[in-house]
Amino acid sequence: MSVIDKCASYTRAREAKAAGLYPYFLNFDGRDAGTARMADGREVVMCGSNDYLGLSTDPRVVEAAARAAERYGAGCTGSRFLNGNLELHDQLERELAEFFGKPAALVLTTGYQANLGAIAGLCGPGDIVFLDKEAHASLIDAARLSRAKIQWFAHNDTDDLRAKLSRVAGTADCMVVVDGVYSMEGDLCPLPELVEISDEFGATLLVDDAHGGGVLDKGRGTSSHFGLTTSVPLITLTFSKAFGSIGGAILGDEEVIDYLRHNARSLMFSASASPSNTAAALESLRILQAEPWRCGAVSDNADFMRRELTALGYEVGASQTPIIPVEIGDGVSTLLAWNLLIEQGVYVNAVLPPAASPRLRTSYTAAQTEEQLHRAVAGFRAVRDQVLRVPAHV
Ligand SMILES: Cc1ncc(COP(=O)(O)O)c(C=O)c1O
């Protein structure tokens, strides 16, 4: 047996394609913030991107990216550590630290790498990383990479965390790792209790704010939403969602960021974020400060969809954010619903285990127009009787 032998017997994807129910790697031929054109020419209302503020196609952001490519080239061809650092990266760090209210920031090439850098850069054998059961894959991978011991606690269950931390307090250095906003459920972490428990047991709290940064509290994120920015020692961000670009950052105290600058392997051994991606993130950061209405608009759009989907009889969970999960049933019914919605001109994400239990992950943006949202509602209404087992009451 070799390590590649299992590939020949991996037939799940091929079977799903043959059944016309393969929801991954779809080609999009073009898009604006609220709609997308599929490769076969169909236009769909995009209810599945993370472009929360509608900035990825904003002409100012696109223009900033183009100018940076013209000035610095298409890529930096090296890590920031050696030859890939630009004034743009440094400038973005200064403006991120100031906006998010932390002493310092470190810009990395993706949010995934920000998590790897922060957790594996600070934790090692002998330490313990406490992970929420629903933590993002990048946080799990980071904890595994660190070679620290991993202790899981039940999702958002601070009693479980407290019990587990109290058992090891004083015997190891501990980090508590959570998402600010959970990417599949759209629910928030119980930050005040997490801060209190981490402080009580001397654990370092890290909040991955990939989905809260740029969105909650006029963009200042989950920690600011709870008024706890100074009490959270480490915050990680991505630029691939509200910032409409690619890249990531770690926010923290000066000496921690300086340590990571010289010890985070995902920063030191990977090429820096491209000039255009960095300039786009910087431009988005400036726009979101100048146009805080965008955070209100995405929240209003999501509230509208939450109300409409609930009224149609869909089960939408406990989300308070632009991410709204829609429960349909098992994997096959979820895929069938996903397919029917595309036929109605509505694109959502079909999520299957192991990412999460089967659901449609819907998400909304500040740039969606009323007309687009009504089209999305009409799509959900049209397929409802085919995809929901519960009797319709609207
Ligand atoms: C919670 C969370 N953290 C981190 C990441 C990784 O971000 P990036 O796309 O910048 O690598 C994601 C993206 O899927 C995410 O949802």
Keywords:
394 residues, 7-stranded mixed β-sheet, 15 helices, 16% strand, binds pyridoxal-5'-phosphate, PyrdxlP-dep_Trfase_small, transferase
How do the strands and helices of this protein lay out in sequence?
Blueprint: H1 5-8, H2 12-18, E1 28-31, E2 35-38, E3 43-46, H3 59-72, H4 87-100, E4 104-108, H5 111-122, E5 128-132, H6 137-146, E6 149-153, H7 158-168, E7 174-179, H8 191-201, E8 204-208, H9 221-225, E9 234-238, E10 248-252, H10 254-263, H11 265-268, H12 275-290, H13 293-311, E11 323-326, H14 331-343, E12 346-347, E13 349-351, E14 359-363, H15 370-387
Helix pairs in contact: 3-12, 4-12, 5-6, 7-8, 13-15, 14-15
Domain Aminotransferase class I/classII large: 45-378
Keywords: Ligase, Pyridoxal phosphate, Transferase
Family: Belongs to the class-II pyridoxal-phosphate-dependent aminotransferase family.
**Could you give a short account of the major beta sheet?**
7 strands, mixed
**Class by helix and strand content?**
alpha/beta
* Average pLDDT metric: 95
What ligand species are in this complex?
pyridoxal-5'-phosphate
- Shape estimate: globular
The percent range for helix content is 40-55%
Strand order of the largest sheet: 4-10-9-8-7-5-6
Q: Between the first and last Cα atoms, what is the distance in angstroms?
A: 57 Å
Number of helices: 15
Percent strand equals 15-25%
Order of helices and strands: HHEEEHHEHEHEHEHEHEEHHHHEHEEEH
Regions with pLDDT < 50 over 5+ consecutive residues?
Answer: 390-394
- Please tell me how large the radius of gyration is: 21 Å
Beta strand count: 14
Family: Belongs to the class-II pyridoxal-phosphate-dependent aminotransferase family.
Protein name: 8-amino-7-oxononanoate synthase
Catalytic activity: 6-carboxyhexanoyl-[ACP] + L-alanine + H(+) = (8S)-8-amino-7-oxononanoate + holo-[ACP] + CO2
GO molecular function, one term: 8-amino-7-oxononanoate synthase activity
